[in-house]
Amino acid sequence: MPDQSSDATAESAHPVTRDIDLSPRHRWRAYWVAVAVAALTILDLTKVNVALPSIEAALNAGPTELQLVVTGYILTFGLVLVPAGRLGDLRSRRVLFLVGLSLFLVTSLACALAPNTTVLLVARLLQGVAAGIQMPQVLGLVQQLFQGKERGRAFGLFGATIGIATAFGPTLGGLLIALGGDTDGWRLIF
């Protein structure tokens, strides 16, 4: 008679997240959607830096509040990464990806419409949580979708895309501020 406790241990060692069975073309399409969303979260991190003077002027924000606009996002993003990644392993990466993306869109809108620094800070903290929920799902999806050399290629493209998003963020932020003007241009960034 087999030992049931060893079966339970085996199940906990192997997460219940199901494999994603897609054709090669559909795998790469799903990959690029996920990577584009990941790039948006990184763009959002870097483009905000150039908006700080505009936010300061428009909302009468102090230095501490401006620092929290940037570091609060990073802090909540980092705090949520590991638990969200594990939850995606145990449950559903797709569902958590969609939850993270939806929350990111809602919090981006809240940041853009913020009437004062308090609302902006709360929305920005929640935006970091949303980014922290969806980012590990992207990496987990790459692990699930690809094997061997194809996985190496996918991770290489992911790294390059994130690098480009990091470098392009301040430029995009400056362009959006120029389009929207000194007073409300920062709202376009979100």
Please render the helix and strand layout as text.
Elements: H1 4-13, H2 24-47, H3 52-59, H4 63-90, H5 93-112, H6 117-145, H7 148-189
Question: In words, what does this structure look like?
Answer:
With 190 residues, this protein is mostly helical. The protein has one domain: MFS general substrate transporter like domains (Growth Hormone, Chain: A). The chain is built from seven helices and no strands. The longest helix has 42 residues. About 3% of the residues have low confidence.
Summing up helix and strand content along with how strands pair, one would put the structural category as mainly alpha
**CATH architecture verdict:** Up-down Bundle
Per CATH, what is the topology? Growth Hormone, Chain: A
- Total individual domains: 1
- Summarize model confidence as the mean pLDDT: 88
Q: What is the count of β-strands?
A: 0
Q: Could you give the order of the helices and strands?
A: HHHHHHH
What does this entry show, briefly?
The protein has helices at 4-13, 24-47, 52-59, 63-90, 93-112, 117-145, 148-189. It has 190 residues and is mostly helical.
Keywords:
Growth Hormone, Chain: A, mainly alpha, 7 helices, 190 residues
